[in-house]
Design goal:
Layout lengths: L2 H4 L2 E3 L23 E6 L11 E3 L5 E8 L4 E6 L4 E7 L2 E5 L6 E5 L4 E4 L5 E5 L5 E8 L8 E2 L1 H9 L2 E3 L5 E3 L18 H4 L7 H8 E2 L1 H7 L5 E5 L4 E2 L4 E7 L14 E7 L2 E5 L2 E5 L4 E4 L6 E4 L6 E7 L11
Parallel strand pairs: 2-3, 16-17
Antiparallel strand pairs: 1-22, 2-4, 4-11, 5-10, 5-12, 6-9, 6-11, 7-8, 7-10, 9-15, 13-14, 16-18, 18-24, 19-22, 19-24, 20-21, 20-23
Amino acid sequence: MTPEQTEPRIVRYGELKPCKTAFIDAHTPGSDQKENFTIIGGGVSESADQHVHIRETPGFNIGAAGQPPKCRNSLHSHRTAEVFFVLKGRWRFFWGRWGTAGEVVLEEGDIFNIPTGIFRGFENIGTDYGMIMAILGGDDAGGGVIWAPQVIEDARAHGLVLAENGKLYDSKRGEHLPEGVAPMPLLTVAELKTFPEPTTVDVIPDYVARYWDLVALADRQPASVIGERGLLRDRPGFEVGFLTRASASDELHGHDRPSVLMPLRGHWRLKWPDGEATLNPGDTCLVPENLPHTAVPAMTGEASLYQVIGTDDPSGPTHRF
């Protein structure tokens, strides 16, 4: 076995490579300054320019979105789970055919298990550059993004055309659809009616968890955030746990499948039998299956991290409305 198969692999926050042309709205005013990061797995980028840090997947994908203030991500949907937690900044998430069915504002550390099968978008409403980390269900992240019709039409007016094969072509670069390849068709009226329009009241109780509530729940043992027994009771193909200084343990342990550690606050010392490393906020660490390991705070002060482990549950629609 190679070292990559037997030792944790770490993608440092400061080494993340963004793509500014990942999606169809890359030229649309209001969305043209966003950056997309694909950290683990192929992600859902429509651009060949997207850099992938770790290609193999543990049953789910890890990505991120970085945006300056007032920049938004356009309305889209996924066939599999999409979970975000806020690493930096203040963000507004909105959903529905026109983005008016409901909304929620998330602060640093808050997590949102966005119901599958609904159109959703988000924007940085803070005062500085913000970053949200994403967990996408499935090895192939559901086969791409489903865009609201107006997003495709707006993009075409600014030089970007999405092909039916899911690839993006930029007329500003002299790119054109290949012969025999048609543009991505717009969803029909009948198809649009199949997308739920839940209200804010429908969504927040079962799909949003606040950081300080999780800190309180993790005062003695790691808190289960998303999972069959989680605070957000769902089975989207992975489980999400939350650790703090109070619930961290020096005892080595392993899992029968790969896991991912994502520090939120503080510096964490990751230990395994043959080594150790320090994890910082924004870093992403892929821990191989069956590797005995532990993570404990490396310094005094506040410390918290999210842990993600795949499950055998399907990664398809899980909404309950």
